[in-house]
Amino acid sequence: MIIIKVIDYHVHSDNSFDGKSDIDSTCQESIKKEVQEICFTEHFSVDPRDVSFGVLDYSKYTCEINEARKKYKKYLLIKKGLEIGEPHLAEYSEELKNFLGGTDLDFIIGSVHNINGVKLRLFMKNKKKYHIYQEYFEEIYKMAETADIDVIGHLDMMKRYAYAEHGNYHIEDHSGIIQNILEKIIQRKIGLEINCSGLNHDVNEIYPKVEILKWYKELGGEILTVGSDSHRSESIASKNGEIMEMVKKMGFQYIYTYESRKRTPFYL
User: Fold this and answer.
1) Residues 107, 33, 210, CA angle at the centre, nearest 5°?
2) Domain named PHP: which ranges (predicted)?
3) What is the pLDDT of residues 39-98, one digit of tens each?
4) Which of 170, 138, 167 is nearest to 155 (CA)?
5) Who is most buried in 18, 40, 81, 112, counting CB within 10 A?
6) 230 pairs with which residues across the strands?
7) C-alpha to C-alpha distance for 152 and 19, rounded to whole angstroms
8) In Å, how far are 27, 57, 180 from 141, measured between CA atoms?
9) Which of 30, 37, 9, 18 is nearest to 234 (CA)?
């Protein structure tokens, strides 16, 4: 049996507002688990309404990444990235562009955590199931249209918040907007993240669900990354190996890694 080398392209340290472990301990745990490569993707937003606004000290983050690279260069490949919330918002586009112009990032995840400045778990209040999911996917499409990102993060994460009250969504109910999202990211050469954290939530499946990955492949999509969305060192790459095996069985030949925002195929 060939053992796939594991990588993790969605990792938070205590540089994120909700991260619990520092970069050094996260790297140590990665080495212990024989992970080959990780990319830290700290939360960032230029929207003052977002909980992550103003939290990230980018200079401190950069120093800690550089120190870890020197310390662990023989054992672990370490990349520096961001998970940017709502990077498509026109009213903050200049601030974001100016900030990114002064960075040396390897990788950017674009995620929707808020709609119209409202957290997803609050946005869904007093809405019917169809509209909860449909309006979320419509916001994802807006991001896919214009944002300067490398991958779409946790594409259908609304199910994390809606599941308890409304259950999972039926992909056929939202096939049009989902197909539009997939076609747009393929056109713009934006990748699709497979986020493993849903396996630890009540919904108990990856983000996005497997059916979406199948549609993506049928449409010609091939740019995938795999991330644990770890916020504690002990959860680094917790399900990544089995998901990489699953992706291979689905017919994908590789996932992707990034350096200076240029992607490279990582053969499975």
Assistant:
1) 60
2) 8-195
3) 999 999 999 999 999 999 999 999 999 999 999 999 999 999 999 999 999 999 999 999
4) 138
5) 40
6) 11
7) 21
8) 34, 30, 7
9) 30
The CATH topology of domain 7-267 is TIM Barrel (3.20.20)
Q: Residues 171, 143, 188, CA angle at the centre, nearest 5°?
A: 90
**E strands present in the chain:** 7-11, 37-44, 77-85, 107-111, 114-115, 118-119, 151-152, 191-195, 224-227, 254-259, 262-267
Residue 51, classed as helix, strand or coil, is coil
CA distance linking residue 267 with residue 255, whole number of Å:
7
> Domain limits of the chain?
7-267
The whole-angstrom separation of Cα 9 and Cα 137 is: 23
Residue 107 φ/ψ region, left for φ over 0, alpha for ψ in the -120 to 50 degree band, beta for the rest: beta
DSSP 191-226: EEEEEGGGGGSTT-S-BS-HHHHHHHHHTT---EEE
CB 28 within 8 A of CB 79: no
C-beta of residue 195 within 8 angstroms of C-beta of residue 203: no
Cα first-last separation, the chain: 13
Rounded CA-CA distance 30/238 in Å is 10
- pTM higher than 0.90, yes or no? yes
